[in-house]
Amino acid sequence: MVTRFLRSRQASDSAKSLMRAALIEALQSPACALCQIAQQNNPRYVETLLDEAVIDVDQRDAWRAAKGLCSWHAWMAIKSPQGAGSLAILYQDVLRHDLSLIDPVTAPDDRRQRSEQRRFLRRLRNWLESCQAGPTCPACRTWGEQEDLYVQVLLNDWPEPALSQAFAASVGLCWPHLRRLAARQPGHENLPAILKAQRACLERLQRDLESFIRKLDYRFADEPYGREADAWRRAVSLYAGAAGWLGSAPR
Ligand SMILES: [Zn+2]
Ligand SMILES: [Zn+2]
Predict the structure, then answer these.
(1) Percent of the chain whose pLDDT exceeds 70
(2) Minimal CB count within 10 Å: which of 44, 45, 136, 244?
């Protein structure tokens, strides 16, 4: 936590103004701005991480413990043009480790003997415990630190009219990112104003959903759709975040 705080303080003024500009731009999209930035930036983060992890053997322990990348980042990595070689090397290492863990439950024994069966069940239990969720995916960890910086910029720069007005006109944040923002600095002086603006976004979505549902009725089916046309999609992404994002390892 202290390390993260120090890192956030180290972001230069020019980096912060770039982040603010990225936030304002992302707020124009019909999705949570932080989800939008995550979708845009993560492919680049994954590519860099793959390059570094192949060279830096010390990072292999983290890859083994996390059993590679989470589902979101893994499928992103597969689409990376240069990813094949790095993924083969890194996952060979992870697989070698996991083969050693599954060894005890695949070794031949005589299951007809009760004592052997008990031993097998104990080894199986140990193996299942070793498969429990381990440390966070290496890419999630890297991105999580960057995302904290964006959250911090949103909190600190809220009084900038360009930012707060863009937020007011946007769909707001998804619930997971709103909780992350609120938990980051619960005592931040700008948090109440952000929560109030978010509430207005949620109320607008609620009205759009009502309007969309009303037009499902055959009596109003001829009325043209306006901004409520994608209200159902916005409602789903409010809870689910961007595609794949919440499929990542716990953060
Ligand atoms: Zn989000
Ligand atoms: Zn991940």
Answers:
(1) 90
(2) 44
